Amino acid sequence: MAPRKDTIFQRFLAPAFELLIDGEQLKRLSQSIDWNQAVTKFGDSENFVYPEYYRSQNFHGIEGGYLTRDAAVTYDAITQYVLPPGETLVRQGLIDAIRCQPTTILDLGCGTGSTTIMLKKAFPRSWIVGLDLSPYMLAVAEHKAKQAGLDILWLQGKAEATRFATEQFDLVTASLLFHETPPTVTRAILKECFRLLKPGGEVAILDGNQKSLRQVPWLTEIFEEPYIKDYAGDSVDAGMGAAGFAAVLTEELWWLHQVTLGVKPLAARAGFTTREDAIASGDWMAAPGY
Ligand SMILES: C[S@@+](CC[C@H](N)C(=O)[O-])C[C@H]1O[C@@H](n2cnc3c(N)ncnc32)[C@H](O)[C@@H]1O
To answer: Coiled coil where (predicted)?
Structure first.
């Protein structure tokens, strides 16, 4: 599918970014990665089936979407300009929302690993995995982590169907992923987060502020984002509740962004489905919404 030429991004922002971006620096980044080796390492090409919704779309107007070297090399250079008031501040909003002290962390749709790396720095003793569909994005993530001397495991996989064991993680995160997934996939990802978390574990989702996107619809037209209108019309908050999470709370970040945090009830281990059942059994700590 050819990139659309009618988006505000293609008509105005792409030419502006070309002026802002340091082409030489991107060339150096591209040359410092052995792409064939990275794609062989991360891309389980024989057996891996990319979801149709992902393979068939040109995210951000790049033909081939995230399954290209170009997308991976330019991602950070562009992202720094599209997260006002500042990329690091916005990503820090997700870290600040976390209430647990995780020792096992999974970052879904980790892309080039910017949030994953911040998580590792915030919780240095944690075992952390960054998972993404794109071997190209993972190649850049691995390069950045190596440069920072950080030990992070990078894996190719689907956020909606990871191959991890049940109750393996204390914390599961996703930043800037949900505006790129169709509603059915978003719901499947939240269910997968619930399965992967230990009881008492937390899920933290950072993305665009759904309320603001609904109030100012042209914000959903700026980039070539095939599923952003679905995302704007949906509610991460409600999705987490439906997946079984308790204590769900969405906080607005500088009007444009939001962080939603949910906790897997301790009752999930005890097998109680309602707060009343847990309380009736005398197991107060296991009550959903404890
Ligand atoms: C906008 S980028 C966000 C990357 C990163 N989390 C960040 O905060 O910059 C979305 C990423 O999600 C990945 N992605 C999209 N759908 C996915 C899925 N179902 N499973 C895993 N990764 C997915 C894409 O390959 C891309 O790297």
So the answer is: none
- The Cα 16–Cα 237 span in angstroms is 35
How far, in Å, CA of 224 to CA of 4, rounded? 7
3-state secondary structure of 266: coil
Q: Give distance in angstroms: CA of 164 to centre of ligand 1.
A: 18
Q: Which pTM value belongs to this model? A: 0.88
> Going from the N-terminus, what domains does the chain have, and what CATH number goes with each?
87-264 (3.40.50.150)
* Top mutation candidate among 87, 132, 205 for ligand 1, by most atoms within 8 Å of CB: 132
Please give the chain's pLDDT, 290 residues, in tens.
555 555 445 555 566 666 677 778 888 999 999 999 988 888 766 678 899 889 876 656 556 688 989 889 999 998 998 899 999 999 999 999 999 999 999 999 999 999 999 999 999 999 999 999 999 999 999 999 999 999 999 999 999 999 999 999 999 999 999 999 999 999 999 999 999 999 999 999 999 999 999 998 888 877 667 899 999 999 999 999 999 999 999 999 999 999 999 999 987 765 555 555 555 555 444 444 43
CB of 119 within 6 A of ligand 1: the answer is no
Ligand 1 atom with minimal separation from the 54 CA = 16
Tokens of 127: 């075992």
Can you tell me the distance from the alpha carbon of 188 to that of 190, in angstroms, rounded to the nearest whole number?
A: 5
CA 132 – CA 159 distance, rounded (Å): 7
Backbone angles phi, psi at 165, to 5 degrees: -70, 155
What six digits make up the tokens of 106? Answer: 């999974």
Residue type, 71: A
* Best mutation site among 133, 134, 253 for ligand 1 pocket (most ligand atoms within 8 Å of CB): 133
